[in-house]
Specification:
The structure holds two protein chains of two kinds. By secondary structure, chain A is α/β, with parallel strands linked by helices. Chain A has helices spanning about 1-30, 40-45, 50-55, 70-80, 95-100, 110-115, 125-130, 155-160, 170-180, 195-205, 225-240, 250-255, 270-275, 320-330, 330-340, 355, 360-370, 380-395, 405-415, 420-425; strands spanning about 30-40, 60-65, 90, 130-135, 135, 140-145, 150, 190, 210-215, 220, 265, 285-290, 300-305, 305-310, 345, 370-375. In chain A, the strands form five sheets. Chain A has a six-stranded mixed β-sheet with strand order 2-1-3-14-6-15. In chain A, strands 8-11-7-12 form a four-stranded mixed β-sheet. In chain A, strands 4-5 form a two-stranded antiparallel ribbon. In chain A, a hairpin with a 4-residue loop joins strand 9 and strand 10 (about 220). The longest helix of chain A is centred in the N-terminal third of the chain and has 27 residues, at about 1-30. The termini of chain A are far apart. Chain B is mainly alpha-helical. In chain B, helix 4 runs antiparallel to helix 10 and helix 12 (about 260-270) packs antiparallel against helix 13 (about 270-300). The longest helix of chain B has about 40 residues, at about 1-45. Classes of the chains: A alpha/beta, B mainly alpha. The interface between A and B is medium-sized, with 29 and 31 residues.
Chain lengths: ~425, ~300
């Protein structure tokens, strides 16, 4: 008898719980919740920008989730496979072709046409271009980066250079000079890491090389122009102007501070690290410069990097998601974001802010952003450069293969990777 | 008759109860093991990749092409060679070291056994990434303590992880240091299971320490050794984390292991079909290795 009373009570309370849950659900369903995934520190800090957006847009709540960069692509692709992509998310702009190919992200032209805030003209054209596939726009640049030359001013002066090199030839002469000044010491002029493919692609693109041909279905590394750029860089290993092993430089900042090398091609993510290591008397002994070009007449291009904001194809709240993108693309939000995480704003207007225009290290970046180009926009790109290009760079740098052999084999390997793409296009 | 029937009934209900209790485990093995393994086996005959993930119409059944490509790929053979190098060198060394440590710790002369046991076991439970950071400093060509110590013997600095010849030995050394504690504990348990009276009898017969070791300890440890060598071999064939955090497979792919190659193909480049075929080749190798080892041990026993 007693037990049945208890059962009854339990039953009632369970029913009560259900009613309560239902009520609270219907209450919150008046406002729309959009999911937003950010990567790394961007995902961490963007949370601080959300309250203002929610205040401006009553009825929209944003749920921010952070994914670490190292597992980002795996996480996003698995989310796609299980239909769990968030409404808005951050994508490294080289990943856009992959997600567009998967049909995982929405085409945004319609939104852009009717937007008062987002307009192609507000962005650096090279950066904008990384989001465009066959004249369809899949992402809006959020923050941007590119690679420039970090260099030691004092070492340059000792070598008789008052300004950074403007051409490949000057860069080479300067490197020889620096190496000669360090005679007898185990020191180098520049650090061209064999596991950083970007250097090789940058120099190839600077030289006007077409890296993949026939609508990106065949490799073209053995073209004359790429060969020229590639052997120019490999020569730095042969003449010991750059260290060969990657493990010799565990800490690039420390090595830079010790003059182990005096030049390094890298991006804005390293500025604060360099500041941390170049202290005391070294504080004003370094700077940044736009990259040299193949000759006086050609500006040296660099890579268009950074992250974009995209809307998932299956999102039920695309309009609200777009509002969030617009909010994050306002110049004032972009500056705030720069102050939070030091990511360079994608919107040109934001660069007029004194925190950027007065920053001596930023000048080179601003200059360089006007000369950035996208890498070939195909899903296979990262596999090509990380698994193949870097492999043959190392083989050529260590003199296991000649430049010609290395590039021929590279072409063969890449053509195998591109077989599926050729089949897809012929369908 | 009646009695027997009821016994059978009892047995029957017993069996169904057993199945009931086993069900959760069986279901989870089925769902999380057999289904994925079978689908992976099917996938290994397709060119499943990022395009197929977008739409299954981009999936092609390609028969044995993945396997043929695999056997024609020098990188696969390189990774296989590296893995065998690791298995054949690291496994016996690691077993010797564990056995040695176990014998020392089991000796009556050693004091503070618990502390030593703990000290030797700590690397096993330490996160590999933390260990790798320390070992990268130990191996550092310019500031590393290893080169510093060698310099007293007049040996020139060696770029341990950056030199194609030394990279694998360096990984092996670190991996043995990290893992021998685990086998050591099993060996200690095996040693403690050897009845004391055997040694007493041996002493009475006038056997010296070496003879005791050869005639009593080793034979009595044989089952433990079989178990450990199989477990170690299987574990070593699955070499992944050490090179992944220390060298990423470099320099010149000299530390690229089969599992790492499989991981790269599958989860970095999304060539799932190809990656699945690597998994099955590795499975067959490990299976064959285990069978071979069991056979040899049976033969010698």
């Amino acid at each position: 008898m007693e037990s049945s009373i208890i059962k009854m009570k339990l039953f009632k309370s369970i029913i009560g719980l259900f009613v309560f849950v239902n009520l609270s659900c219907s209450e919150s369903s008046k406002e729309i919740v959009i999911d937003f995934w950010g990567l790394g520190s961007e995902g961490e800090f963007v949370k601080l920008l959300i309250p203002k957006f929610e205040a401006e847009n009553p009825g929209i709540k944003v749920k921010v989730q952070m994914a670490p960069w190292t597992a980002a692509q795996e996480k996003l692709i698995s989310a796609f496979a299980s239909d769990n992509l968030p409404d808005v998310f951050q994508l490294g702009n080289t990943w856009i072709p992959q997600f567009a190919q998967l049909d995982g992200i929405s085409e945004l032209s319609e939104f852009i046409h009717s937007s008062k805030i987002i307009n192609k003209e507000n962005y650096f054209s090279g950066i904008w271009d990384t989001n465009v596939l066959d004249s369809l726009v899949f992402g809006i640049p959020w923050y941007i980066d590119t690679r420039v030359l970090f260099y030691r001013k004092d070492v340059f002066e000792k070598a008789g250079f008052t300004s950074p090199p403007k051409t490949w030839n000057e860069l080479y002469k300067l490197s020889k000079k620096i190496k000669a000044n360090h005679k007898g010491e185990e020191k180098y002029a520049i650090f061209i890491a064999t596991n950083e493919w970007a250097n090789f692609i940058i120099f190839g693109l600077q030289n006007g090389a077409e890296i993949l041909k026939n609508n990106n279905t065949y490799a073209n590394f053995s073209s004359d122009k790429f060969t020229e750029a590639f052997s120019y860089l490999v020569n730095y290993y042969k003449e010991k102007l750059t260290p060969l092993g990657v493990s010799q430089v565990t800490n690039v900042y420390q090595a830079f501070a010790e003059e182990y090398f005096s030049m390094y091609i890298s991006g804005p993510w390293n500025i604060n690290e360099f500041k941390k290591w170049m202290t005391g008397s070294l504080q004003d002994k370094w700077s940044t410069a736009a990259l040299p070009g193949p000759n006086e007449n050609i500006k040296g291009v660099s890579l268009a990097g950074g992250s974009s904001l995209v809307i998932s194809q299956k999102s039920k709240h695309k309009k609200e998601a777009w509002k969030l993108i617009e909010y994050l693309s306002k110049p004032e939000t972009q500056i705030e974001f720069y102050h939070l995480v030091n990511d360079l704003p994608a919107v040109k207007e934001a660069w007029k802010d004194s925190s950027l225009s007065n920053n001596i290290y930023m000048k080179a970046f601003y200059e360089q952003f006007n000369y950035v180009v996208a890498t070939p926009k195909i899903p296979e790109w990262e596999q090509i450069v990380f698994s193949k290009l870097q492999q043959y760079v190392e083989l050529a740098a260590r003199n296991v293969l000649t430049v010609k052999e290395a590039l021929k084999k590279l072409d063969d390997d890449v053509n195998v990777i591109l077989e599926k793409r050729r089949w897809m296009l012929s369908k | 008759m009646k009695n027997a029937e009821s016994k059978l009934d009892k047995y029957k209900t017993g069996v169904s109860a057993a199945y009931l209790f086993l069900a959760p485990a069986l279901v989870s093995i089925l769902v999380f093991f057999f289904i994925p393994v079978i689908s992976a086996f099917i996938i290994s005959f397709t060119d499943f990749d990022i395009y197929s993930l977008g739409s299954y119409s981009n999936l092609r059944f390609i028969g044995l092409k993945n396997y043929i490509d695999l056997f024609n790929n020098p990188l696969f053979w390189t990774s296989l060679k590296n893995t065998f190098y690791f298995v054949l060198v690291a496994s016996p060394l690691s077993i010797f070291v564990s056995l040695g440590a176990a014998l020392l710790l089991n000796s009556k002369l050693v004091r503070f056994k618990a502390i030593f046991r703990l000290a030797y076991f700590i690397p096993v439970v330490t996160t590999l990434v933390a260990v790798a950071i320390i070992w990268r400093f130990i191996y550092h060509p310019r500031f590393g303590i290893l080169n510093y110590l060698l310099s007293f013997a007049g040996i020139n600095p060696i770029d341990w992880l950056g030199d194609p010849f030394w990279a694998m030995p360096s990984i092996i050394l670190m991996s043995i240091w990290k893992n021998f504690g685990y086998n050591m504990i099993i060996f200690i348990a095996g040693l403690q299971n050897i009845p004391e009276h055997l040694y007493e009898a041996a002493v009475l017969e006038g056997a010296n320490g070496w003879q005791q070791f050869k005639k009593i300890t080793l034979p009595m440890l044989a089952p433990t050794t079989v178990f450990i060598s199989i477990i170690t071999m299987i574990g070593n064939f699955q070499l992944f984390a050490e090179p992944y955090v220390m060298t990423q497979g470099g320099p010149l792919n000299k530390t690229l292991s089969v599992v790492q190659y499989m991981y790269q193909e599958g989860f970095r480049w999304w060539n799932m079909g190809y990656s699945a075929s690597i998994a099955f080749v590795l499975f067959i190798i490990i299976f064959a290795g285990t069978m071979l080892q069991l056979k040899i041990q049976k033969h010698s026993a």
